């Protein structure tokens, strides 16, 4: 998956914005101002094509066991709750999409009632 396809998919999720809150190289996707995905663009351009995705702790460990060379605890993030996924690896594209959806859904599930109502009232 190339960066444009990845960005387009993430932005297709309801209420998602793309921002650079840390520096000009770290693209962050948020839903209702909560992060669900990060991409290091400078590293991406150099061939290290990873996306950091939120995950429940037990599921994060399962994924790391299933794909030991392609999924691991996210650098500079809580490794308990975030995985780095090698986008162009043994992780099938459909599985990557599922993991992005899972991260988004996990963040949405933890929004406040008011935030969920605001999200539901947005146009798709």
Automatic annotation (TrEMBL):
Protein's name in the database: MmcQ-like protein
Domain of life according to the entry: Bacteria
A Pfam family recorded for this sequence: YjbR
